[in-house]
Write a structure and sequence with these properties.
Layout lengths: L2 E6 L5 E7 L3 E4 L7 E8 L26 E8 L2 H5 L4 H11 L19 E9 L1 E5 L5 E5 L3 E5 L4 E3 L6 E9 L18
Antiparallel strand pairs: 1-2, 3-4, 4-5, 5-11, 6-9, 6-11, 7-8, 7-10
Length: about 190
């Protein structure tokens, strides 16, 4: 995979400013086959920059604040890998060290379940995953499927026998108090 970045020069002409064959990838020792690639990040006051900087290399939280973005690619090992883990304390410590801002959102009593104050545009790149919501509701995703995740509690389950990969653009959002939340979209199903 390559990450290519473009921008305009002083004369307003489009140009290539960066091409990276190996973006910053975080690998996990205690969950073999799990990795998260930091691809791009923007701040809340994003403008078309005169000088392009790679904020993905330095952001302090995987969960963006309101108006910020994170573009990440995640590779999930099969769930059977998780079933073989015996040292969950080390998994938790590694997540805390390598996934700041996100790790503390994982629920200890419901492995994998988490909620973030973000709107996520998720594209299934390879293999398949199951998106699990409250009450065990699930949807199977295959390559090319797209999920718009609106701050809902969820988990990703890889019930296949190989790795599965997604691309996610997370947009930081503010959360309304529950009494102000909008009703379901017309024609939507649970």
């Amino acid at each position: 995979m390559k990450r290519i970045v473009t921008a305009n020069d002083n004369a307003g002409n489009a140009r290539f400013v960066d091409e990276m064959d190996s973006p910053l990838v975080v690998y996990f020792d205690y969950v073999p086959g799990f990795s998260v690639s930091r691809l791009w990040s923007t701040s809340a006051d994003v403008i078309i920059p005169e000088t392009v900087t790679d904020e993905a290399l330095s952001f302090s939280s995987f969960v963006p604040g309101p108006g910020e973005t994170r573009c990440i690619m995640v590779e999930f090992p099969p769930d059977e890998v998780l079933g073989k883990i015996t040292d969950w304390a080390s998994v938790g410590a590694e997540y805390a060290a390598k996934l700041p801002g996100l790790a503390e959102r994982f629920e200890a009593d419901s492995p994998g379940m988490h909620t973030t104050p973000t709107i996520d545009h998720v594209v299934m790149l390879s293999s398949e995953l199951w998106l699990e919501l409250d009450g065990g509701k699930q949807r199977r995703l295959t390559a090319g499927d797209i999920v718009v995740q609106n701050g809902a509690r969820h988990a990703w389950r890889n019930q296949s026998d190989g790795p599965a990969r997604i691309l996610s653009v997370m947009i930081g959002a503010s959360i309304l108090p529950s009494s102000d939340k909008a009703a379901d979209l017309p024609g939507s199903s649970s």
